[in-house]
Design brief:
This protein is α+β, with helices and mostly antiparallel strands. Helix content is 39%, strand content 24%.
Amino acid sequence: MKKYKIKKVGINKILTPIVVLLLLLFIQMLLNFDGLCHLCNMSSYEKQTAVISRTTTDKFLLVIPMVEIQYSYGGQAYSEEKYFVVPPLFGRTDETGAPVPVYVNTLAPGHTLFRLNFFLCPANILILLLEAVCVCMLIFRIRRKVKVKRLKKAKKKGGDDREDE
């Protein structure tokens, strides 16, 4: 009879993939913030196309790229300065005169959200793969913990310490 060695699977081995998974979900939420805002309040936004009129940087650190976009809604022209950090990841260009698809808030037409396709960003796909790995690790470790508990119970009852497969 082959004896199986009982390995301890502590709470840290289960908690680690949970923490990494939550961190990845948080990063993905930040990366897709405009899409989440639109998703939560779809009825208040309409599709429009804006034009980039000027590219600049932020006023404080002078390193964060910004664009000024111009668009018209309801017969009135609007202009808005927006941070342009995430859209290049989705294949958007910041050249002056380039069209940019946006969602215009119907209740406050002076505010817009960039229209970004979730699957065009390689970072989103990479994060989804890492999240899947974390979920698989978590499932494996939980199953291992249950298996160890069964083996310990069998050992305490005086049975043999191998599991019938």
